Fold this sequence. Notes:
CATH superfamily: Dehydroquinase, class II
Strand order of the largest sheet: 2-1-3-4-5
Oligomer: single chain
Radius of gyration: 14 Å
Bound molecules: 1,3,4-trihydroxy-5-OXO-cyclohexanecarboxylic acid
Low-confidence stretches: none
Amino acid sequence: MKLLILNGPNLNLLGVREPEIYGKQNYSDLCQLIEAHAAELGVEVEVRQTNHEGVLVDWIQQARGQFDGIVLNPAAYTHTSIALLDAVAAAGLPTVEVHISDVRRREAFRQISYVRAACVATITGHGLHGYLEAMDVLIHLK
Ligand code: DQA
């Protein structure tokens, strides 16, 4: 089993960016946590980050046939992107939406998630651990 973990804009700034909201651990810590969990689960994993919406669309399209599931933190594109919703719907792969912060308890504009409609689950507000929970959801679907 091979999982693709995708991160959207500004998540490369973890640890520096608003630590009171996103925590003190940095992007490299996140990658290490995911890789260690993948090793425990005995699955392959690839972790990527981009600041560009179209790159996320390309990666989701290319995942078909290459991966068995996607963990997606679209960051701010969650709240704006119909293109990402369409890409996830077209990919034909189970996808779990993840947010580090609890978007349900933040600004009104963060209550909207376009991608959610195409995702099998959403994990929000569990910090970096949410990515590991999303991986667990995907492996239990199989
Ligand atoms: C986020 C929440 C989004 O609202 C925000 O734009 C992000 C990160 C999260 O992981 O909590 O960049 O997706």
